[in-house]
């Protein structure tokens, strides 16, 4: 990248005083999110999938919205009777089994939840998703290997194999950013349950020297991109940041951003909205109860994005702001290049309406889906759906034939998103995940903690809309440059955890310093061999962290580090160069 940031002064210091000056970062224990909390700027509250402001049974009439509730129905008895009638029409009246035991507040809460639920639609989703016991899905998957084709070279751009074209793509992308025609859209609905923390993943601190969280790093990358675009084109610009949360993460995410003053971004350019929720179902399609007066609910998957975009008026907001290109990505990738100008520029040059960023899959058994064509249509095929023989096939160049590993990192034109919201979203079919779902036994009223799967959660995937693209492209990047997901706690299998994420970022920044002509020395002043890339999880990287406000992708560092020697840990940020000196001072 060509642009460079302001040159910080060089200053040797300890790290304790430096850490006190960090904006944000640190570990936080937020309050839990609120169910269906409204978004911040400034989206309308809207119902979820299966929530239409009324209960609909099998052909029953719709209950009018607004101005009603229990009072309009003439009291709690009338409400219970009306609810039971409507639920019975859809075969779901068992959820009122414990109504007589509930107090007034619990009855009102359950009634409100049920009045927002479209039972007929939920039943329809279940029938489609199960496909008559899975037969339809099995038939669709039959012979999948023979119908798969790898991504053709003419739709593939590669950061490594097309190096000569990368500057042109980057320039095109930065020009688009300078014109305020690019937005970033973050999928941040996940809780940190597998990480062993009670708050959203984006608030996780993986132990970097700066203690910056994932949200903090991503916000600063956006700020740096805006600065680069303004420096190159001489005009102020902004990158709207749309953040999709779930009911469990909305309030805590908003509070975190407010606490840290949006990490230096303008509040009006950070737009929160919430994905939908669906009830968990038994294998028989019956809605499960989490408590006697509460439905067991779950987010509708990252593919619930498209319904949420319409429900909350997000695409309309994008059009009002003049956004033409949208970068969609998941929160848990510490190396993500938010609103990557190279990816944006590549997609624009190809005239694409939809694009997928991928990393090369080098191990046939790596558990990652692959982007490919099936019956001539682009989609992501999960690793579990591909036979070992097909996974092991290689092309003339020795690479795996199906090597485009999906990393949930996508480009969409705003026009394409509008078509998806208005036309294609209802055609998407839910994927079924069999889960162990705690629930109240309808017969005994006791809470059941199942030891094996007892029901399903239905969800859609963000890549389900590839099939509707008229011009689909794929952009391949180096895994070590752009992909290190955070999925597990450090105590688990040693993969995709805070330690591997931290090491990946520091290894990348070590490489940036070496590429810019800098060197590292040990406590005796002896140069450390330049081996920047980690070979396995047991390797320890040089401790080096570079603020996104100084460099977005390794650019602008020569003037700071060329022909200089540094001790570790080394931190380069907007305040200066900080390094550990002799005797730990």
Textual characterization of the structure:
- The strands form eight sheets. An eight-stranded mixed β-sheet has the order 2-20-12-15-11-3-4-5, sandwiched between helices. Strands 1-13-14 form a three-stranded antiparallel β-sheet.
- Mean pLDDT is 85; it is low at 1-74 and 132-139.
- Helix 3 packs parallel to helix 4 and helix 10 (305-311) crosses helix 14 (414-424).
- Helices cover 29% and strands 17% of the residues.
- It is globular and about 80 Å long.
List the topology elements.
Blueprint: H1 16-19, H2 69-73, H3 76-89, H4 104-115, H5 119-141, H6 144-147, E1 148-149, E2 156-158, H7 166-178, E3 182-187, H8 214-233, E4 241-245, H9 250-259, E5 270-274, E6 277-279, E7 281-282, E8 289-291, E9 294-295, E10 297-299, H10 305-311, H11 314-321, E11 325-330, H12 341-350, E12 354-360, E13 370-374, E14 377-381, H13 388-391, E15 404-413, H14 414-424, E16 431-435, E17 439-440, E18 447-448, E19 455-459, E20 472-477, H15 479-482, H16 498-515, E21 519-520, E22 544-546, H17 558-561, E23 565-566, E24 570-573, E25 576-579
Parallel strand pairs: 2-20, 3-4, 3-11, 4-5, 12-20, 21-23, 22-24
Antiparallel strand pairs: 1-13, 6-10, 7-19, 8-9, 11-15, 12-15, 13-14, 16-19, 17-18, 24-25
Helix pairs in contact: 3-4, 7-8, 7-12, 10-14, 11-14
């Amino acid at each position: 990248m060509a642009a460079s940031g302001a040159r910080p002064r060089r200053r040797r210091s300890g790290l304790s005083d430096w850490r006190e000056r960090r904006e944000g970062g640190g570990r936080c224990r937020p309050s839990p999110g609120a169910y269906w909390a409204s978004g911040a700027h400034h989206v309308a509250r809207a119902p979820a999938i299966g929530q239409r402001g009324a209960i609909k049974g099998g052909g029953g009439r719709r209950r009018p919205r607004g101005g009603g509730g229990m009072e309009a129905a003439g009291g709690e008895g009338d409400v219970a009777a009306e609810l039971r009638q409507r639920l019975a029409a859809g075969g779901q009246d068992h959820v009122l089994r414990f109504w007589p035991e509930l107090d007034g507040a619990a009855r009102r809460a359950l009634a409100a939840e049920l009045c927002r639920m479209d039972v007929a639609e939920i039943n329809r989703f279940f029938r489609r998703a199960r496909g008559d016991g899975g037969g339809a899905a099995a038939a669709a998957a039959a012979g999948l290997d023979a119908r798969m084709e790898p991504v053709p070279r003419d739709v593939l751009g590669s950061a490594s194999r097309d190096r000569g074209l990368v500057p042109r793509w980057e320039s095109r992308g930065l020009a688009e950013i300078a014109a305020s025609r690019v937005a970033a859209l973050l999928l941040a609905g996940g809780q940190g349950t597998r990480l062993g923390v009670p708050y959203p993943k984006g608030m996780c601190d993986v132990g970097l020297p700066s203690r910056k969280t994932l949200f903090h790093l991503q916000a600063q990358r956006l700020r740096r991109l805006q600065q680069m675009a303004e420096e190159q084109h001489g005009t102020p610009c902004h990158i709207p940041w749309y953040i999709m949360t779930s009911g469990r993460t909305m309030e805590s995410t908003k509070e975190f951003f407010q606490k840290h003053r949006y990490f230096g971004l303008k509040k009006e350019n950070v737009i929160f909205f919430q994905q939908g929720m669906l009830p968990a179902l038994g294998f028989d399609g019956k809605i499960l109860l989490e408590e006697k007066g509460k439905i067991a609910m779950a987010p509708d998957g990252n593919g619930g994005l498209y319904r949420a975009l319409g429900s909350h008026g997000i695409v309309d907001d994008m059009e009002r702001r003049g956004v033409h290109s949208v970068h969609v990505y998941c929160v848990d990738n510490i190396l993500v290049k938010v609103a990557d100008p190279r990816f944006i520029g590549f997609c624009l040059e190809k005239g694409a309406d939809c694009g997928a960023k991928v990393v090369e899959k080098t191990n046939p058994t790596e558990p990652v889906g692959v982007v490919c064509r099936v019956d001539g249509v682009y989609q992501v095929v999960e690793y579990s759906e591909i036979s070992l023989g097909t996974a092991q096939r290689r092309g003339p160049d020795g690479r795996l034939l199906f090597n485009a590993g999906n990393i949930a990192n996508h480009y969409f034109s705003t026009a394409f998103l509008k078509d998806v919201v208005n036309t294609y979203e209802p055609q998407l079919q839910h994927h079924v995940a069999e889960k162990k779902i705690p629930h109240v036994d309808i017969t005994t009223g006791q809470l059941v903690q199942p030891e094996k799967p007892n029901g399903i959660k239905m969800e859609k995937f963000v890549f389900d809309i590839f099939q509707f693209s008229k011009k689909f492209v794929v952009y391949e990047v180096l895994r070590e440059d752009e992909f290190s997901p955070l999925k597990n706690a450090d105590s688990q299998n040693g993969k995709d955890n805070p330690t591997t994420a931290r090491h990946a970022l520091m290894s990348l920044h070590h490489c940036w310093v070496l590429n810019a002509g800098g060197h590292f020395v040990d406590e005796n002043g002896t140069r450390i061999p330049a081996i920047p890339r980690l070979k396995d999880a047991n390797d320890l990287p040089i401790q080096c962290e570079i603020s996104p406000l100084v460099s977005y992708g390794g650019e602008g560092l020569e003037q700071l580090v060329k022909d200089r020697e540094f001790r570790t840990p080394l931190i380069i940020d907007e305040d200066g160069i900080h390094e550990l000196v002799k005797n730990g001072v």
